[in-house]
Design goal:
The chain has 429 residues and is α+β, with helices and mostly antiparallel strands. The protein folds into 3 domains: 19-212, no CATH class; 225-289; 304-424, 2-Layer Sandwich (Heat Shock Protein 90), CATH 3.30.565. The chain has helices at 2-14, 18-26, 43-69, 74-90, 95-112, 129-135, 138-147, 154-171, 173-176, 179-256, 262-289, 307-316, 333-353, 392-403, and strands spanning 321-325, 359-366, 369-376, 405-411, 417-424. A 5-stranded mixed beta sheet has the order 1-2-3-5-4, covered by helices on one side. It is elongated and about 130 Å long.
Length: 429
């Protein structure tokens, strides 16, 4: 039902007078875009600035209207002040309502200028001051409302603004001639253009943000797929090694074990065939994930025994590392490989983003899991620009998701960084 309703609204707005009717009656504040976060400073500073500007405006406006209309018209003066100050307070949350209140206040002010006091204290040359003060808060309300309109919505608001500018000029025609009329049209026209300019900039920024989010999401998806392919290849090497051993031992069992019956030998042959078939299936599946031009990996996969060499290589590059590495005895090969890759990425992350910082590395084998902690302190110098895509931490999380466990990464309170991972050992024999 929502698309139909939206289509009807657009059709009504495109008909003659439809845009005016939408701006005056049928439009809702929720039809407009949400406000932009244009203020970058502290909130209290903005509040003080706005309150100060409104206070100065109220004092000047009150004095002008009171002298123009006379002391006997104080209730009207206060009413004009209210309809002048309310729109700027409403424009952020209710922009369309703010425009309507401001327009109503402008109409009341134009009518009020037609009935001045019998003897204005400032004389005829300055009698247009109250109306000019009344226009001041209407201009930012108009611009901010137009900035939040969707295509086709701002037409009615712009027409109302031009009509009010003409009304202001005509009301002052007997006193100031066409000067006020021309000036009002110029000022309102410039405000309308500024509002549409802010609208276009808003749309351009929104499109850029959407494109950036799409790029980041696509990069993250691609990195996830690449990481899964890498993990699949590594698992294939581990599983393939053990399946090959199973096939080899079952084929040679009747020669290594004495008194093997024919039934047992036949069972060994069947187990060997099943192992070789499983190995072939694993190779075919990993072949789908492997890049077409990538060479198969035949080197042994690293494990916890290779962690000291990894740390020594990092120390040779100038990183100060304090390590506590427990034995990997009894840890499955898949867990060892994942732990090595996690340590590798965490140390690379510390080297790239925290140059000069000391790094603490801990690998602790507990009964229910393998705990890995890599912490670095505050960098002593600024990090060099990196061309990386920032997906290393995502790769760590992907490995933890595959194996099972917990993963915590993020900055420390002192400016350092922490990578804390616990890999489950539920599959341990």
């Amino acid at each position: 039902m929502c698309p139909v309703r939206g289509g009807i609204s657009v059709l009504v707005m495109e008909t003659s007078g439809g845009s005016l009717g939408w701006a005056l009656v049928t439009g809702r504040d929720g039809d407009l875009e949400p406000p932009s976060a244009w203020w970058r400073g502290p909130g209290w500073v903005k509040t003080v600035l706005v309150a100060s500007a409104l206070t100065v405006l109220m004092v000047l406006t009150y004095g002008s209207w009171a002298r123009y209309l006379g002391d006997q018209s104080l209730p009207l003066v206060f009413f004009l002040l209210i309809v002048q100050i309310v729109p700027p307070l409403l424009v952020v949350r209710s922009p369309l309502t703010a425009v309507r209140v401001a327009a109503a206040g402008m109409i009341c002010a134009i009518i009020a200028t037609l009935f001045p006091a019998p003897h204005p204290p400032f004389g005829a040359t300055l009698s247009e001051w109250p109306l000019q003060f009344h226009v001041l808060p209407y201009l930012p309300v108009l611009a901010l409302a137009l900035a939040r309109t969707k295509p086709g919505q701002g037409r009615g608001i712009s027409i109302i603004a031009v009509l009010l500018a003409v009304g202001v000029g005509l009301a002052q025609l007997p006193r100031s001639g066409t000067k006020t009329l021309v000036l009002s049209l110029i000022v309102v026209g410039g405000t309308v253009l500024a509002g549409y300019g802010m609208q276009q900039r808003r749309r351009a920024l929104a499109q850029a943000d959407a494109a950036e989010r799409a790029t980041v999401e696509e990069r993250a998806k691609r990195a996830t797929l690449q990481e899964r392919a890498q993990i699949a290849r590594e698992l294939h090497d581990i599983i393939g090694h053990h399946l090959s051993l199973i096939a080899l031992r079952t084929d040679s069992a009747r020669y290594r074990v004495a008194d093997v019956s024919e039934a047992a030998a036949e069972e060994f042959r069947a187990l060997g065939a099943a192992a070789r078939e499983a190995l072939d299936e694993a190779r075919r599946l990993v072949g789908v994930l492997r890049d077409n031009d990538a060479e198969p990996e035949h080197e042994p996969q690293p494990g916890l025994a290779d962690v000291p060499a990894l740390i020594d290589g990092c120390r040779a590059s100038g990183i100060e590392i304090r390590s506590r590495i427990s034995s990997g005895e009894g840890v499955p090969a898949m867990i060892e490989l994942a732990a090595y890759r996690i340590l590798q990425e965490a140390l690379s992350n510390a080297a790239r983003h925290s140059p000069g910082a000391a790094v603490d590395v801990e690998v602790r084998h507990e009964p229910d899991g393998l705990v890995i902690r890599v912490e670095n302190g505050t960098p002593s110098r600024e990090a060099a620009p990196s061309a990386g895509d920032g997906t290393g931490l995502a790769g760590i999380a992907e490995r933890v998701t595959l194996i099972g466990g917990s993963c915590e990464t993020g900055p420390r309170a002192d400016g350092g960084f922490l990578v804390a991972v616990t890999l489950e050992l539920t599959g341990e024999a």
